[in-house]
Amino acid sequence: MGRYGRLRRIQQMDPLRDHERIFRWITQYEFPRDYLQGTSVAFLRDYGVPRVSRLLDRTQEFERAGQKRYDDTVLIAYEMVREGLDSEHGRATARHLNRIHGRYRIPNEDFLYVLATTVVGPKRWIDRYGWRPLSPQETESLALVGRRMGELMGITGLPADYAEFERLHDAYEREMFAYDPANRRVAAATLRVVTEWYPAPLRQLAARVTLALLDEPLLEALGLPPQPRWLRFAADRALRARAAVIRRLPPRPERFPRRPKPRSYPFGWTLDDLGPHWAHSRPVVPLTDEDPPPGPAVPDHHTPPPAREATGAPPLSPGGRSPAPASAPDRSDRTHLDQEPR
């Protein structure tokens, strides 16, 4: 298979029928690092909205366990799709996510925006810095996967396609971006997580390069300083040079999909490991398309928050409810980093 072999196959597919398969090819084969980078920038965009960042600031999750919060968000999104969104495992992950988010009162419009950042953010990053832009089939697959995630989370008023996600995303930012001290605190805590991935002498440079890749409206909302023109130009050129190199490399083989490598779980993880410790004391509620369990209903007056919100990274992850209480974690189903998840 040549460098563009998967693209040619994708162009013959129907996103309505094949969006989950196309999504896995995007995230595990064609653009694994770029998708993650685009999602990371989406996390930062969430903090430009004071209503979102104040909640995150109150939880102190990033101050106390920023790396775990980041990892949990990435992993919950991965677990939702690895066997299919409507597989038993995908639905169990959605129930777990909703159980975590059920603690908070979050407006539906905030859920929509956070979800939209996980669709629009990766698309824009890949089109700018990926080794090729996304095809129309890939773009719509991102939107359809995001829409199904939103349905499982109980979000209403979901966009039907990518164009609607993009319009919602941009309109919400025009209306809601504003500086607040909480924005800066949560963004600074997240940047500390990111820069700690690098050797100590490079951390300051890594932080400045990250800021150089952010647009001015976002920097203003976060209260972070714009970087000099020369650094913005150098960061942009370096990423485009990287894309040119990757374009000339062979495609990733089918037998070697790229999977998450979370720093918080060097020996693997189970679904019950993900999220804050208090989540397991909360009731598990059926998904919106499931029948309630027999017996008295357990009232839960909270609106389920966006997927990134309470897992271990910013709100979407982008970021669950069950017909019966979750069973104890089965350690035989632990996902290891060096083997195919079952």
UniProtKB/TrEMBL annotation:
The record's section on Pfam families has:
MPAB_Lcp_cat
Q: Could you tell me where the Basic and acidic residues compositional bias lies?
A: 330-342
Q: Region (Disordered): which ranges? A: 280-342
The record ties this protein, via InterPro entries, to: MPAB (IPR046366), MPAB/Lcp_cat_dom (IPR018713)
> What ranges does the record list as Low complexity composition bias?
312-329
Q: Name one GO molecular function term.
A: oxidoreductase activity
ER-bound oxygenase mpaB/mpaB'/Rubber oxygenase catalytic domain: from which residue to which, for each copy?
60-244
Q: Which protein are we looking at?
A: L-aspartate oxidase
Q: Tell me the organism.
A: Streptomyces griseoflavus Tu4000
